[in-house]
Specification:
The complex is a heterodimer. By secondary structure, chain A is mainly alpha-helical. Chain A is built from 14 helices and 2 strands. The chains are: A mainly alpha, B alpha/beta. At the A-B interface, helix 7 and helix 8 of A face helix 2 and helix 3 of B.
Chain lengths: 311, 245
Amino acid sequence: MTKRDWQSITLSAVLLAVAACLPLTGDAYMLSIGITIAMYAVLATSWALFSGPTHYISLATAAFFGLGTYTTAIGIENGLNYWVTLPIAAVLGAVLAVLVGLATLRLSGVYFVIFTLGLAELVRQVVTWGQNLSGQKGLYVLTDITEVHIYWQLLVLAAIVYLTGWAIGRSRLGFALRIIGDDEEVARHSGINTSRAKILLFMVSGATAAVVGSILAPRYIYIEPALAFTPMLSFLVVIMALLGGTGRLWGPLVGVIPFTLLWEAISSSFPNQTTLLLGLSFLVIVYLLPRGFVGLIESGKRKLREREAFA
Amino acid sequence: MTTGAIVLSLRGATKRFGGLVAVNDMDFDVTEHEVLGLIGPNGSGKSTTLNLISGALKPTEGTISLRGTPISHLSAADIARRGIARTFQLVRLLPSMTVLENVRAGAVFGHRRRWGAEADAHALRMLALVGLDRRANAHVGELTYIDTKRVELARVLASEPKVLLLDEWLAGLNPTELEEGIALIKRLRDEGRTIILVEHVMDAIRSLCDRCVVMSTGTKIAEGTPEEVLSDPEVIRAYLGDDDA
């Protein structure tokens, strides 16, 4: 590892430690926003691990997230320990990712996007149907886990996701995905098993989203398919990740923090205009920030360097 | 004709697209250290034949074997890993990467797999071989046309293929570049590489190929040394039409 790697790791550890101190302020509102930010940071970063290099826009996050919440809810109802439900959710998320991957990763571009959206909706309908058969509209998730626990769990998961992303970025798999993102035909003819590489990364992404769902389940106390599988979640994750930029591991985080704060402000003052904000953000990203904040920062840096070179 | 071990052989390789027979019952062998030219008029099925060998397309019928092992049922990735590497008719580079990273792609995932410093060193050697080592850190968008072709060739060479497929690698070069290009491929030939060359440039065919297979409307119409096939009346008819033959 180079000196720069150590620097980034130290910096990340310090930031994480600072973030972990948030509950010490004793402010319940701050903690609540902290949880939302941590949740979207994990979801958007793990989403970008797959979608960043490959440019496959997945709208299936809600399916994995909902799968996780339901795994924990059903597990607890049947007497399982909460902590046992997390790895189960991870495995189920990974399995679902393999199934989705085998079915859809041959598609590309807009077909893949539509398929994942449809898939998330299909899973939601199936769960709703199953839920109705049970005679209840939703499930209670009763645990003694508090908001602070949820927050710290999310931070640990974030640390795991960042380490995983960092390791993948330095591995053959990471290099393979960049090649696939650039030109899939070249990737195949260079000897890369493109389906396997894509499915592996999709599994990481899916398992992470499922675990986030699991961790969040106790927060909701009562879950319904419409809440656990809300397609809005998938859209928000995509927008935040793209707003931040997927070219760097820390990119999505840069989008998540401002967007979550803005979203909070708007949904509390103008609860009926949230969808409008969603639409506007899409426009802003597409027209002004095609490569996100990361792209903005990097082209700014380049310009600065060029100016210095001429000076 | 060179008499070495047979590296690649096609037996009855056929490709149909609906009613159109693009490649019809092709038979030929490529022996070790041989440069085989695959020539013929436009639309005669040369590129499709190359696509069948590289696994970009699957043959409708027939078999293609690498050192006696059938490969025609394998995916393009598996075929590349077994040692058949190709360039593309329209150059395909990895646009977000540097020259060195482009070449590293071949070194990391190809027939002989490397990683880390070893892959970088190997990629640099390949860049030196094509005369581009000084531009290793350049972005591929900054390159001239022939340099993009060089990068693609270096990427393919970096995988240490047993058979090299060059799809009109010399097309679109100006006369000076063409000379450099021919010299470069001659160097590869002198290193004893096994190459299949789809080419239109007659000078290149004459000076580079040990043997030629001529295709017309999907079928092999002649096979032999460049002099033999280029004086074959049927080949002349295929290229120029009946009146001139």
